[in-house]
Amino acid sequence: MLEQLVQIAELIGLVVITCTLIFIALQVKQGADTMRSEARQTQTNLDLALVSRLVEFPEIGRVFSQNETPTFEEKTQLMFWMIGQLRTREHCSGSATVRHFGCYA
After folding, report:
1. What is the phi/psi pair of residue 12, to 5°?
2. Model pTM?
3. Of 2, 51, 60, 71, which has the fewest Cβ atoms less than 10 A away?
4. pLDDT per residue over 86-97, tens digit each?
């Protein structure tokens, strides 16, 4: 009789441990999903800031679309704007590689 109680207690302990591990796995997945969602939201906010900068400074957009060769000043503005955009993408994953550019998609 005592052995049966021990076996039942072990079985109950096994079920409790299994349920706990399943619960922890679900919590970890939910945390990872939340972090991914927050990263996407941050990237979306940064993209919106980019669009607002292009609206605020339309000359950058004109440099992109003009047929003439940009002046030194325009090239400098454009270069620093592009560097800023690459740095924005870099923060999305920690490195600016082609594989990571889609991290917010």
Report:
1. -65, -40
2. 0.54
3. 2
4. 887 776 555 445
